[in-house]
Amino acid sequence: MPGPTLSAGLGLIHKQLTYHAKEPTSDFSGQTVIVTGGNAGLGRETCRYLATLKVARLIIACRTVTKGEEARQWILDQTKSQSVVEVWELDMSDFQSVKAFSKRARSLDRLDAVLENAGSWPKQWEMVEGHETTVTVNVISTCLLAYLLLPRLRETAVTSNTTTRLSIVSSELHKFATLKALDNPKIFEGLKKPTSDYDGRYNDTKLLEMIFVRKLAEAMSASPSGKGGISINAMSPGWCNSNLKPGQTFGARMAERLLQRSTEEGARLLVDAISLEKAEGRHGQYVSEAQVAKAAGWLYSGNGKEAEQRVWSELNSILESIEHGCTNLGTG
């Protein structure tokens, strides 16, 4: 694949300098929403906005419950909201935790939206659950959680005659991915090879997320139960001030000052990504600057489509080995 291009770089800079997200006005009354990684950074700010937008039940999913409780109290103090705000444990580096969380979510009386915001940007090489940490957290667990929550989202869509939403927080950096693992007979085996290019690995995982959303939307439309009133997307909040940061060089710090969006502005875009009013026309799409946008151009090429199918097939095999039957959309 071609990797970074000048046009992608200039496009990113232009968006950062010229676009300013509007305050969200969507009404989340009566809705139940899950936000992963909701205890800090963009996730916490998104939860604050949701509380002001009258969400009925808000679930902060995070690895450390005590930190989640601190975020919960901060949100309630800031908003004086009447929303029911809960903290549920979810460790995206642990497949059993993902499965336990999903099982608990089945007990919800409804589930209107899921924002998969939790992610990892490595500073050193580490393997967890048989894969490099970034791949485990950003790709495998993220996709596993999506599959396992689809049945509850579909049930709510049908019983409440609404469109439920699932958004995976991706990044414009997916356009900078090189995915050298494509040279391997098995892509996910290639991703196990040690690398010191942690920024590149992060970009690769964002591309893999994009592929998953595109292929999942395609599969949902072709399944016996169809889309089932669910709209899924991959969104980018742009370059924001968040708790997810790689090691910083002097040049990167200077670029931050010039280009970075505030946490609050980034959170506005996360809220937009799961709003009911914006769900139509976004299924399987990339959403950037609160609009449907074109994903990395390479994905639309013959080689890109071939790679998408390889990723889709390998990823589903991995997910089936973790939870048998989870990829069966016909019964979900």
TrEMBL record:
Q: Which Pfam families match?
A: adh_short (PF00106)
The record's section on InterPro entries has: NAD(P)-bd_dom_sf, SDR_fam
Q: Per UniProt, which keywords does this protein have?
A: Oxidoreductase
Cross-referenced SUPFAM superfamilies: NAD(P)-binding Rossmann-fold domains (SSF51735)
Q: Which domain of life is it from?
A: Eukaryota
Gene Ontology MF term list: oxidoreductase activity
Q: Which PANTHER family match?
A: PHOSPHATIDYLINOSITOL-GLYCAN BIOSYNTHESIS CLASS F PROTEIN (PTHR43157:SF31), PHOSPHATIDYLINOSITOL-GLYCAN BIOSYNTHESIS CLASS F PROTEIN-RELATED (PTHR43157)
Name of this protein: NAD(P)-binding protein
The organism named in the record is Meristemomyces frigidus
